[in-house]
Structures are given as structure tokens and as C-alpha cells.
């Protein structure tokens, strides 16, 4: 029993002496960036699905894009799409306003969607099929990102397992032997 108490006191002293920080503060910004990445993927896929829904209802691409902009819940995506609509209302064609709205400051997934729409309009390919494929690929990327972060969770558990759980289990298993050994040494 004394051995367990002494080992806990020694662990406490070692942790305080070496100033080991167990909060893992550096992982939080990375995790929040990853969550923003996944949420942006899903928001862009939902935006594309809203465009597809309006295209299926018989609207043209401009009205579908405008309705998807109004119904979008993501503020960054809505801001970028409104910039495209402002360019269109200033007299540019819809294809030119799409091309001009692509910039490095906006979201890369939004840029990918706009490039897909612009190329479909420019080349005359079917817009619905291209948008369906793009939406599916964005959702697959989001699912893969989620699965990747889930697969990293067991690796993060190795540190507490090795440094805290195994020594405590060892102490609990060996404490009976140590007590018997001490009692036999007394004669």
C-alpha cells in the first residue's frame, strides 16, 4: 500500500518538475481547421444540390444559382455567390461573372464549383451530370476526411495508455508481491 502511495507522489513530483503539459493545446487549432474544411465541403455539396433541385424544377442556371445563394446557410459561400450575382447585375454575362468571381481569396471548393459550371456552359456539356458528379466527389472527400480524423483517435490514446495506465496496472499487480516480499524479509 505504501508503495502505491509513494509511486503516485513520485509521479506527481516528476510531472511538476518537468512541467509536462497534458492539455494538448496545439491540437485544437488543427482540429477546428479540419472541422471548417469538412463543413465547407458539405456546404458546397448542399449548394450544388440546391442548384440541381432548381434545375430539375425547370429553372435556368442563373435562377437556380440565385435561389441556391438565397437558401445557403454558409456565410462565406453566400458572400462569394452574391459577388457573382452582383457582377451579373452590373451587365456581365453569367458565364463571365462566374469566370471573374474565381479568385484566390474565396473558398477552393466554391472555385471548383464555379469552374465546373463555367466549363459546362462554355463547352456545352450537360450541366446536371457534371454537378451531380462534383457534388458526389465533394461528399466523398468530406467522408474521407471524417474517416481520417476518426482513424487518428486511437493513435492519440497511446500517450495516456503507455505513460499512465500501464504503470498503474503494473503497480496494482505487483503490489501484492511487494507486500509479501517485505513481510518475508521481517522474519
Automatic annotation (TrEMBL):
Q: Which InterPro entries does its entry note?
A: T2SS_GspF_dom
Q: Which residues form a coiled coil?
A: none
Q: Which Pfam families match?
A: T2SSF (PF00482)
Q: How is this protein positioned relative to the membrane?
A: Multi-pass membrane protein
> Membrane-spanning regions, if any?
6-25, 157-178
Give yes or no: UniProt keyword Transmembrane helix.
Answer: yes
Alphabetic keyword roster: Cell membrane, Membrane, Transmembrane, Transmembrane helix
UniProt keyword Transmembrane helix present: yes
Q: Which organism is it from?
A: Silvanigrella aquatica
Where in or outside the cell?
A: Cell membrane
Q: Locate the Type II secretion system protein GspF domain: which residues?
A: 47-174
PANTHER family in the cross-refs: INTEGRAL MEMBRANE PROTEIN-RELATED, PILUS ASSEMBLE PROTEIN
UniProt-recorded name of the protein? Type II secretion system protein GspF domain-containing protein
Which Gene Ontology terms of cellular component type are present? plasma membrane
